[in-house]
Amino acid sequence: MNTIKYLLDEDKMPTHWYNVAADLPTPAAPALHPGTGQPLGPADLAPLFPMALIMQEVSTERSIEIPDEVQQIYRQWRPSPLFRARRLEKALDTPAKIYYKYEGVSPAGSHKPNTAIAQAYYNKIEGTKRLVTETGAGQWGSSLAFAGALFGLEVEIYMVKVSYNQKPYRRALMEVYGARVVASPSTETACGRAILAEHPDSTGSLGIAISEAVEMAVQRDDTKYALGSVLNHVMLHQTVIGEEAIAQMEMAGDYPDVIVGCTGGGSNFAGLTFPFIGAKLRGERDVRVIAVEPAACPTLTKGKFTYDFGDTAHLTPLVKMHTLGSTFVPSGIHAGGLRYHGMGPLVSHLLDLGTIDAVAVQQLETFSAGLQFARTEGILPAPESNHAVAATIREALRCKEEGKSETILFNLSGHGHFDLQAYMDFQAGTLKDFEYSDEEVAMALAGLPSVG
Amino acid sequence: MNTIKYLLDEDKMPTHWYNVAADLPTPAAPALHPGTGQPLGPADLAPLFPMALIMQEVSTERSIEIPDEVQQIYRQWRPSPLFRARRLEKALDTPAKIYYKYEGVSPAGSHKPNTAIAQAYYNKIEGTKRLVTETGAGQWGSSLAFAGALFGLEVEIYMVKVSYNQKPYRRALMEVYGARVVASPSTETACGRAILAEHPDSTGSLGIAISEAVEMAVQRDDTKYALGSVLNHVMLHQTVIGEEAIAQMEMAGDYPDVIVGCTGGGSNFAGLTFPFIGAKLRGERDVRVIAVEPAACPTLTKGKFTYDFGDTAHLTPLVKMHTLGSTFVPSGIHAGGLRYHGMGPLVSHLLDLGTIDAVAVQQLETFSAGLQFARTEGILPAPESNHAVAATIREALRCKEEGKSETILFNLSGHGHFDLQAYMDFQAGTLKDFEYSDEEVAMALAGLPSVG
Predict the structure, then answer these.
(1) In what order do the strands lie in the sheet with B97-102?
(2) pLDDT tens per residue across span B223-269
(3) Cα–Cα distance measured from residue A169 to residue B418, given in angstroms and rounded to the nearest whole number
(4) How are beta strands A357-361 and A288-294 bridged, if at all?
(5) Interface test with A, best of B78, B86, B114, B380 (most A CBs within 10 A)
(6) Where does A4-13+76-109+235-445 sit in CATH, by number?
(7) Does CATH place domain B4-12+77-109+239-445 in 1.10.530.10?
(8) B4 contacts in A (CB within 8 Å)?
(9) What is the distance of C-alpha A22 from the center of its chain?
(10) Using the beta-carbon criterion (under 8 Å), do A172 and B146 form an inter-chain contact?
(11) What Å distances lie between residue A227 and A74, A425, B420, CA to CA?
(12) Contact predicate B14/B240, CB 8 Å
């Protein structure tokens, strides 16, 4: 009873990304201009993104071709493997069949290069010289640094100060790839200086780092901004995961009853699930889809579905999403990639439509799940991915109770080789659970803008 | 001009390991009993290893079947990819063609699981309950811990104290897999206590850690010892790398003129090169083979080819190998996996026969090479693997000078995601080169035993 690998032939690798906007029963609400409150036009976004990405952001075409150059680079690690976790199934003594798509095989160790490569490519061909971005735990920053190295683009990364200090190895990886990494809040931007003037000891947040990166990007014509999640074009680029998974499930002669992904901004979740959700929306094949978030940042389960800013300084457009408010500071859980006050608008819209479900899990349950996964399947998951593992184990145990042999598929979005401090803390018993009370959430939501 | 991947179909995965002993023009010298100085019989090794591994240690059969269970587990990450490094070629502006076999795709991030899985399997079927081993940098320890988790074996690891303190994350990975990790020298063994009595502040060495592990293993019938390099059966298990590479080079329509591997105990080097060396020894196909070692531990280039102990306390058999003496303490370079006073007897024998070449490189050159590799090929190499990258770049630049389009193949034995401190030190300019003078080497060699 060993793990089985399903590896797609390279010539069956997807040539197009899948755009879920084409199959939505009602369109997602448009992004609004932060100044006027009016729907954004492409020109409004031009200071931030190359036109090809802006067009993808608003496209309703079902299939968008993956440029040949991007496909070539993808092929260094794609198609990524799909595994049947028979050793985990055995340990759980479940009649469920558990499959996982493994994105940790990329050079950066996560799914993030799927969009980093695409974004670097479109920027390169439109003449961008420098990309500015933010990063929390560092998975996105290291992926964009990697992509920048391949395309000869300068990369500048505003890294949340607490992570900058606590995760020097993530920073080191970005610097190995040649990126410049700045602790945020910094004195390099007006909004960074304003925050430091008021809070000299600020350890930063993703919302602040986004403000700094956006401010830098709009200042120079040769500089653009890049975002690693939330936006529609990011979700689009990640769908290569789910498209491969559909073909691999076919190889296995199976189809998921349940699909599970962890959600911070939503990109790895969207990447795996959107192609399956497309089939569901088109009425071809039903599936239950579960978004898993940390109880310490309960955007989908306790947030409000409304217009909000993506950043602290309110420089970004207003997008309609599940949000805890742009001033919300999630507690310091180790799954840094899931600590964001908002959510991708497409994921939020699908939750609002009832197409997907959402569940919040506690930190200790996720690490316990990760440890069991490592000891059975051998792969050490990233703390973010542990959320998907935990929900998958819940589902597998439900199947055991109900005596059902359902098929569960989840996204193992990255490996945990950079996150061993978190596992050390867990094994030493110093990790804690954290959950916000309804009162605390209500207080955070009180600061939401009254737009839209 | 992007990296090209050659991925072998799973049904073409090797079903047998290749044993170079079958093709040697003269046999390697036998191991000797440390007490009597007489050649060892299988019974002498029985307290340390299961009989199946002892038989592999002395076998001269050319092909040894890989057990089905081991093949199944290999298939989780094997066949590993072979890449053509076209982006690196372009950066070097070389007419050479550079290929690399990438072993960092295993769950532990290096080639070590190839033998860890096999050793755990044979121990399991012969009734072993507990495996004891040593580890330096931690690649081997984490691989055996992973294998132990899959087979339900207890694993106890004596980790060189300086690494235990400096590399807590490597230790954490072993503990995640359920292993018990002990800082060596420890008070748990007689030889550990003896060393601590004399040198209370000893930071340990691989030689000491081996002594402790061997001492523990022989004390209990249900406990065996496991070694991650040096021995013939370890080299054997690693040949799956080279066998796959032969098939993959065929897919690429190419054959190496030069093969490069880094050498500590010799196992990743042997794994890639032995199947090619077999063809060379049988007169089928010529190839130049280069073993690359650190100037800070110049076993092959400055050591003596003679009988020596594998450990400090002289508990192991005497093996004929290139050695700097079992009391030699290599300087603290970051490539911990290459810091061993001796060398696998088969690798030493092949150097003595003139079948392979050896070269020593300095630490700064290896990290400079690793950085260039990461920025072109995207994969961050382990510090050990950087030695192979450095020698490959030397060869590629020689080809450029000579205007020759040679084909170079090297083994990228592991990823460097656990080794970012080393890269940080390199980029901060605090890393140093280190080379032993002939006088220092002569002094170390003066302590060699007068046997054999």
Answers:
(1) B4-6, B82-84, B97-102, B407-412, B258-262, B288-294, B357-361
(2) 999 999 999 999 999 999 999 999 999 999 999 999 999 999 999 99
(3) 9
(4) parallel
(5) B380
(6) 3.40.50.1100
(7) no
(8) 75
(9) 21
(10) no
(11) 19, 30, 25
(12) yes
Give, in order, the Cα–Cα distances in Å from A114 to each of A344, B153, B385, B435.
Answer: 17, 38, 26, 43
pLDDT digits over A270-297, tens only? Answer: 999 999 999 999 999 999 999 999 999 9
Q: What percentage of chain B's residues is helix, strand, coil (to nearest 5)?
A: 45, 20, 40
Task: Please report which residue ranges of A232-343 form alpha helices under DSSP H.
Answer: 232-238, 240-251, 267-281, 299-302
CA distance A84 to A7: 11
CA–CA dist B437, B440 (Å, integer): 5
Can the peptide bond before residue A113 be classed as cis, meaning omega within 30 degrees of 0?
A: no
Write the DSSP string, A64-84.
EEPPHHHHHHHTTT-SPPEEE
Only one residue has tokens 């050896």, namely B358
What ipTM, to 2 d.p.? 0.96
User: What is the token pair recorded at A76?
Assistant: 């260094």
Does residue B185 have a cis peptide bond before it, meaning omega lies within 30 degrees of 0?
yes
Tokens of A151: 């395309």
Residue ranges of the domains in chain A?
4-13+76-109+235-445, 113-227
Residues 6+ apart with CB under 8 A from A176: B371, B374, B375, B380, B420, B423, B427
pLDDT of residue B137: 84
User: A87, A177, A380, A418: which to substitute to probe chain B, counting the most B Cβ within 10 Å?
Assistant: A380
Q: Name the DSSP letter for residue B231.
A: S
Residue B169 region by backbone torsions, left for phi larger than 0, else alpha for psi between -120 and 50, else beta = alpha
Three-class secondary structure of residue B193 per DSSP: helix
Comparing CA positions, the residue from A362, A300, A394 lying closest to residue A92 is A394
CATH dotted code for A113-227: 3.40.50.1100
Please answer yes or no on whether B178 and A378 come within 8 Å at the CB atom.
no
Where b means 16+ CB within 10 Å and e means fewer, A295-319 reads bbbbbbbbbbbbbbbbbbbbbbbbb
Query: In the structure encoding, which two tokens stand for residue B382, read together?
Result: 């382990």
Q: Are B126 and B50 contacting, i.e. CB atoms less than 8 angstroms apart? A: yes
Q: What pLDDT is attached to residue A444?
A: 85
Residue in A73, A378, A418 nearest the CB of B150:
A378
Of residues B341, B293, B302, the one with CA closest to residue B436 = B302
Distance CA A448, CA A304 (A): 9
Q: How far apart are CA B336 and CA B140, in angstroms?
A: 11
Cβ distance A173 to B417 less than 8 Å, yes or no, reads yes
Q: Among partner residues A5, A76, A172, which is closest to B420 by beta-carbon distance?
A: A172
- The answer to whether residues A364 and B157 touch, using CB atoms and an 8 Å cutoff, is no
| DSSP three-state, residue B148 | helix
A-B CB pairs within 8 A amount to: 117
Cα B205 to Cα B66: distance, rounded to the nearest angstrom: 33
State how far residue A329 is from chain B, nearest Cα, in angstroms.
Answer: 28
Q: What is the pLDDT at residue A1?
A: 82
Shortest CA distance from A104: residue in chain B: B105
B176:A5 CB<8 A:
no
pLDDT at B440 (0 to 100): 87
Cα of B306 to nearest chain A Cα, Å = 40
- Specify the fold of B17-65+112-232: Rossmann fold (3.40.50)
Q: What pLDDT score was predicted for residue A451?
A: 66
**Are A4-13+76-109+235-445 and A113-227 in the same CATH fold?**
yes
Retrieve residue B12's tokens. Answer: 């073409």
